[in-house]
Design a protein that fits this description.
The chain is an all-beta fold. It is built from no helices and eleven strands. Strands 2, 4, 5, 6, 9, 10 and 11 form a seven-stranded mixed beta sheet that branches. The chain is globular, with a radius of gyration of 13 Å. It starts with a strand and ends with a strand.
């Protein structure tokens, strides 16, 4: 099973940027599909982005053009660069893993997830 630990959350003003990181460990973690999902207060879980082992990325429409997912397989680290943050973006962001990515599909289910990191956006 893949173990995941997020970092990098915080509070920014609307229009600002944050970069989340996720340290992954576990057997063959570098071959897994990695991604981010978020849970905002009072809302359903929302898939944000996925990155396949070859780096192929998929994004939710709500973050397309503003967020960039990337991974460093040598360091077993996943990143989410979030630019132009909006009032709809605040949530707990979770790093997650599963065996395979499907291009264009950022929804679950996920086999593993981290503890989450809080992102707050002030206007």
């Amino acid at each position: 099973q893949v173990q995941l630990q997020e970092s990098g959350g915080g509070s920014v003003q609307s229009g600002g940027s944050l970069k989340l990181s996720c340290a992954a460990s576990g057997y063959t973690s570098s071959t897994y599909c990695l991604g981010w999902f978020r849970v905002a207060a009072g809302k359903e879980r929302e898939g944000v982005a996925t990155a396949a082992s070859d780096g192929t990325a998929s994004y939710a429409d709500s973050v397309m053009g503003r967020f960039t997912i990337s991974r460093d397989n040598e360091k077993n680290t996943l990143f989410l660069q979030m630019d132009n943050l909006k009032p709809d973006d605040p949530a707990i962001y979770y790093c997650a893993a599963r065996r395979l990515c499907v291009v264009g599909d950022v929804s679950g289910p996920w086999a593993s997830r981290g503890q989450g990191t809080q992102v707050t956006v002030s206007s």
